[in-house]
Hints:
This is Hydrogenase expression/formation protein HypE. Belongs to the HypE family. One of its GO terms (biological process) is protein maturation. Residues 175-330 form the PurM-like C-terminal domain. Pfam families: AIRS, AIRS_C. Helix 2 runs parallel beside helix 3. The protein has 353 residues and is an alpha+beta fold. The protein has two domains: 40-164, CATH 3.30.1330.10; 178-340, Phosphoribosyl-aminoimidazole Synthetase, Chain A, domain 2, CATH 3.90.650. Strand 3 (77-78) and strand 4 (81-82) form a beta hairpin. Helix content is 25%, strand content 22%. The protein has helices at 16-26, 83-96, 117-133, 187-197, 213-216, 241-253, 268-277, 299-307, and strands at residues 47-49, 63-71, 77-78, 81-82, 101-112, 138-146, 155-164, 178-181, 231-235, 256-260, 291-294, 316-322, 329-332, 338-340.
Amino acid sequence: xxxxxxxxxxxxxxxxxxxxxxxxxxxxxxxxxxxxxxxxxxxxxxxxxxxxxxxxxxxxxxxxxxxxxxxxxxxxxxxxxxxxxxxxxxxxxxxxxxxxxxxxxxxxxxxxxxxxxxxxxxxxxxxxxxxxxxxxxxxxxxxxxxxxxxxxxxxxxxxxxxxxxxxxxxxxxxxxxxxxxxxxxxxxxxxxxxxxxxxxxxxxxxxxxxxxxxxxxxxxxxxxxxxxxxxxxxxxxxxxxxxxxxxxxxxxxxxxxxxxxxxxxxxxxxxxxxxxxxxxxxxxxxxxxxxxxxxxxxxxxxxxxxxxxxxxxxxxxxxxxxxxxxxxxxxxxxxxxxxxxxxxxxxxxxxxx
Length: 353
């Protein structure tokens, strides 16, 4: 960070520059960073707020989980979706991967002068449809307009409040856990890039944007014989893609992760586009996928439940956690060799979430 005198696009891309910005300039300058067991220092998908125990102290109450996110996408409309659906889905998913049922959302919108009312209404309707899909109300909001030369497109911030019985941390991965990816990778980033740049890959690439709570809630109740949750960790691989999310999970949990290239679900159209553009699909953002880590004995049961949902039909077990290679992610390639999967360092595809 000492070399950087200004904010660059890489600082918002989900890789090492963004982590350094958060660590060095944000966390170091905020003193009170926790209202519960999970706070700002944990850099999870959200944070928790303590609720007082019941009067007799015999039972601990559920945890309130809160998350917030700002969405800046160019263009705001892209194949099969738009910024409104993405804003609601992204916030719902951040709650879901912490095991929290979404209770309510708030929304703040900054829109430039000259933005078409018809487009604005389409965005609002998309937000409503995504919220209705998981039964969460949008209960408060704010709208601001700025001069047309002060902003080139719409910006949406959404904050979500949820409640969880057992909060799931992205740092909970344990050696032996199996890693489930709920669908194909790279769909959102590649479809938006192709649309924005006018690339013609002779195929119908569409974004995977989706609210995942109804799918995730079905696997949360799985328990072992001792009554403990089968899920050890979850995360949605948005900025930084699968590579960024897995590296965060490995570093926070102190485990190694080995994934198998042959088991990675990826559409042929996405794979071909990545090869043509020189892009690693593991680093491409997704907006409708989750990484779900479960105890090995429950992996097949969880996979079956996930595949039963429309957003999980392409789910696969892609690897496992190990007690070797602490904090590192490795991939066994199709030819049998092993290579490190590094955390992304640049802004692969700017302004896509």
